Amino acid sequence: MEKSALLLMLHVFCGVLALFSVSQVTADDPYKYFTWTVTYGTLSPLGVPQQVILINGQFPGPRLDVVTNDNIILNLINKLDEPFLLTWNGIKQRKNSWQDGVLGTNCPIPPNSNFTYKFQAKDQIGTFTYFPSILLHKASGGFGGLNVYERPLIPIPFPTPDGDFTLLAGDWFKTDRKTLQQSLDSGKSLPFPDGILINGQAQNTFNGDQGKTYMFRISNVGLSTSLNFRIQGHSLKLVEVEGSHTVQDTYDSLDVHVGQSVAVLVTLNQPPKDYYIVASTRFTKRVLSASAVLHYTNSQTRVSGPLPAGPTYQVHWSMKQARTFRWNLTASAARPNPQGSYHYGKITPAKTIVLANSAPLINGKQRYAVNRVSYINADTPLKLADYFNIPGIFSLNSIQSLPSDGPAYLSTSVIPASLHDFIEVVFQNNEKTLQSWHLDGYDFWVVGYGSGQWTQAKRSTYNLVDALTRHTAQVYPNSWTSILISLDNQGMWNFRSAIWDRQYLGQQLYLRVWNAAHNLANEYDIPANALLCGKAVGRKP
C-alpha cells in the first residue's frame, strides 16, 4: 500500500457502533457474537523468536465455526501499532461488500480502535479461512479457519464424520514481516521461504480411533507457495472444495495452492500405529516439508523413517489432477436443491474478459500487473467513493478487458460489469511461475485448464457439465485457466492474486458489479458503523 494512502486512512472517522440493520439480516436466522482482540506476541514457529500477530492470544487465530445462514456479529479490537483489517476468504457477503474487509471496500481499523463486522454466511457451506488483508500482516499470522456447517434438515452427501480437523498449512519466513515489506517496497521479490507450518507449528498430533472416519479441512494460508498434502498409508476421499460438494474420488495426495481449501475424509483402516501427515512445497527447486502425526488412540508405535514422498516438479500431473475435481450434481449444498440444478454450461456469456499477469519493472522497481496495469490503492476505499459519488478516486476506463502491447503503468484499476450478467474470464499466464487467482463475493465454475495461449477454439475443451465451483483458481506456468461467473451479487469486489507479494505489488483489480436501480433487493445500504477515511471523512453514512 502507498504510504500516502495509508497515512490518510489513519485519519478515520469512527461511526457509532450500531445494531445490525433489519434490512441486512433475516430475523429467523441465529446470531453469533464474538469479540476478538488483535495483539502482537513473540513465538518461535521455526525455532527462532519472532513477532507474530495473535487474535485473542492465539496463533493461528480462533477457529470460527458457524452454520449456514448464521448472522456473525464480530467486534474486532485492534491493539497493534498499525491499521488492520480482516477479510473472510470465500464468504460471499451477499449484497454486502461493505463487510468484505479489503482496502477497496473498507477503511482500515486504526490502532487502539475497533470495528464490528456484521455479515451472514448466507446460503453457504464448507471450508474457508480469514486473514489480514493489508500491508504484509499475513506474514505474521492473524489467519484462521472458518467452517460453515450444514443446517440440521439439509443432507450432506456422506455420513457424518466421527471428527473434524482443521489444518492450516503454509510457507513461513523467519524474517520479520516489516523487513519483508521494506524489501518489496524497495523493488525486490520475496526470498525463498524458510519452512512450512501446519497450524502455526512445526509439529502437531491429530488423534483418532481405529476404524473411524474423520474429516480433514485443509487450507493453504501461506504467502506464495503451492503445497502437496498426504497422509502416510491412507487414502484421501475428496468431498468438498471451497463450498462445493465434489464427486467423491480418492487420492493418494492433493495439491492445494495458495488461498485454496479442500475437505477430505480419511478412514483409519490401517494397523494401529502412528503415521506421518505431510505438507510439502510444489514447483520449487528445493522441497520444504512440514510433518504432523496421525495418532491411532490404540497405537503403541511412534512414527519413524523417512517422510512419504510426494510429487516433485510435475506440472502436467497437477493439471491432470485438477481436471478430475468435479461437481457432485445430485448433492445439495447449503440449500436442499441439487447443485446440478443450475445448468451453467447452457448459458451464453455476455462478455469475455482476458486477464494476463506480468512482472514488469516500473520506475526501476519490481511490480506485478494485470493487462499492463499495476494496481495502487487509493486514499479512499472505492466502495465509499462510489457510494458518495466522490470524483477522482477511480475510473471505469482504467484497465482494458483484453491484453494489449505497451509499457506497464500504475493505476487504480476497476472493470465495470452489470448485475445478472453471465461472463467468461480467462487467466493467461505467460510467466514461468504458477499463479493463484481469487475473486471476493463469488464462487465460479472452473471450466478449463490448458497449456500455451488461450484462443476461442479452446472452448471446445471446456467442461460444461460438472465443473467445480470455487473461489480461488490456479493457473499453471505458461498456461491458461478459464472460469464462468454468474454476476448475481452487486458490489465492489476484489479480483486479486492470492500470492501475496504479487497482490501487494499490484496484481489485483476490482470488479464493480452494478445496477442503476437502488434498492435493498440488489444491495444493502452502507452500515451505520462504517469507518470513513480519505475523502469520505465528514460525510454521513
UniProtKB/TrEMBL annotation:
The positions making up the signal sequence are 1-27
Q: Where are the transmembrane segments?
A: none
Q: Spell out the InterPro entries in the cross-references.
A: Cu-oxidase-like_N (IPR011707), Cu-oxidase_2nd (IPR001117), Cu-oxidase_C (IPR011706), Cu-oxidase_fam (IPR045087), Cupredoxin (IPR008972), CuRO_1_AAO-like (IPR034273)
Q: Does the keyword Glycoprotein apply?
A: yes
One annotated GO molecular function: copper ion binding
Which residues lie in coiled coils?
A: none
Ranges for domain Plastocyanin-like come to: 38-151, 164-298, 379-516
Domain of life of the organism in this record?
Eukaryota
Entry keyword set: Glycoprotein, Signal
User: What is the similarity comment for this entry?
Assistant: Belongs to the multicopper oxidase family.
Protein name from the UniProt record: L-ascorbate oxidase homolog
| Protein source organism | Quercus rubra
